[in-house]
Amino acid sequence: MKVVTYIAEFLKSKGIDTVFELQGGMITRIIDELYKIGGITIVSMHHEQAAAMAADAYARIKNIPGVALATSGPGATNLITGIGNCYFDSVPAIFITGQVNVNEQKADKSIRQLGFQETDIVSIVKPITKGAYAIKTAKELPSILHKAYSLSLEGRPGPVLIDIPMNLQHAECDDFQTETESLSYHPDFHAQSLFIRDLKKSLSGSKKPLMLVGRGIRTANAVNELIKLSEKLNIPVVTSLNGIDIIPFKHPNRIGFIGSYGNRWANYALGTCDLLLVLGSRLDLRQTGADVNSFSSGKKIFHVDIEKAELNNRITDCEVLQADILPFIQELLETDFDNHNYDAWHSEITEKKLQRPDTGELQSIQGINPNKFIHVLSQLSKQAKAYSTDVGSNQMWVAQSIELAENQLFLTSGGMGAMGYSLPAAIGACFALDKAPVVAIAGDGGFQINIQELETISRNNLPIKMVVINNHCLGMIRQFQDSYFESNYASTVWGYSAPNFVAVANAYGIASSSIENEEQIIEGTKKLWEKPNEPYLLEVSVDIHTNVYPKMLFGNPITEMEGE
């Protein structure tokens, strides 16, 4: 069997029905074989970064590796931001790059390059992958492909890369066979029992318990179990940025989104709880603030994560357990806990929310209040199966105010914080969801980074509803410049501009419109859904000085948040 045939048959055997790519010389043989064998949708993007981000979103929804292909040299290096996004947000993915023929590689020669577009992509991406492999012989491809697939999924998921020289792609390798790789992680059931015993004891004396959940819950396929656990214990739940879709907006135990720009009342709950159970979240700087002593003070923290290095990392003196979240929660569901009434604690948090709701943070807003708009967008977008956001002010407004229904998904670039994510992520999500409607939200800055993918949406007639929140600047950095640089708006307002997004969408054959005052919000949002199965772009103009509040004050406790 030829190497390219093995690749195609392997992907099909694993249920991977879509790959994302930008055609190039060193991957023509692979793409040609995928086309001839059939059974896999080949999505041609217009930038390799977009292909990588589409594969990322596909993987988040399917919970199997997303696949993106790129040619050697610039094609491979253009994947890097998307690879990093998968690595930091724990997304399984397989990136396959073509490489120049073996006899054109510089090998140990002390020269920079021998073959045209020859680039050592394996060495470049090793720090942001779980594994990176340079194929040297055709015979090693099958075992490396199986190993890469298993590695991307086991433990804390992440990306792998396989670099395959052009001449080896048509070489013969072993016939196709199914292999089962053993996992490297082995649970410690004794440690888990002790951890649960201590958790049960601490809960019996707690008056203000709280759960913080992250994307690890969805990665472990434990969403339903997490909701059952919150109901069993009647404990309030706050979420990280990537965990927003774990618990529905209207669930009585859902409190909100925490962190640097989190809901004020959610950060209050996080800062004042006396017991914190952290599941599938790594307690990074934007979740806890820089003042780690204040964050830990007055509470007992129980932290469960699949990756040992994340436990007692920034936040120390926690009760920790390295474990797979799903069986851990299943054991909690089978454990008898004392019945406790936390109504007073729930009421205390609700009172804080009523004092300063998210829609009341921007008290002197001119024009459209983005938080109010996001609530209306959510309420009128019940047909959407997923939302993707870009990075910046738009991302935070969405995180603060989106009303996700049960089974609606949320996709964003968390750890990498990559602008340009929302549009290609929506494409990947749309294919993963059998072309069901998806809402892509971006700012005017981020939307321009991968704006070329409007053609991919148009060509495939994808029902992606695009919302460009246009604040006519790079808003989050402009706000930062107001705070720390005496409102010197270099490269955020001065020297920055954006096109007419409605005209650009129309140029790609995509219907579009714009709104610029609150009276137009409902009517404008309804236009998104007049033709549910077709793409649409809505430009939402907001005032250039619209800030994101609340905002955590650097160096201060998480409960101390800046506002107007």
Helix and strand content put the structural class at alpha/beta
First-to-last CA distance? 66 Å
Principal-axes geometry comes out as globular
Count of discrete alpha- or pi-helical segments spanning 4 or more residues? 23
Helix content: 25-40%
Task: Please identify the top-level CATH class of the largest domain.
Answer: Alpha Beta
Q: Describe the biggest sheet? A: 6 strands, parallel
CATH superfamily of the largest domain: Thiamin diphosphate (ThDP)-binding fold, Pyr/PP domains
How many discrete domains? 3
Q: Beta fraction of the residues?
A: 15-25%
From the alpha carbons, calculate the radius of gyration and give it in angstroms.
24 Å
Give the second-level CATH assignment, the architecture of the largest domain. Answer: 3-Layer(aba) Sandwich
Uncertain segments are none
Roughly what is the average pLDDT, rounded to an integer?
95
Biggest sheet, strands in spatial order?
2-1-3-4-6-5
Oligomer: single chain
CATH topology of the largest domain, what is it called?
A: Rossmann fold
Instruction: Give the number of DSSP strands.
Output: 20
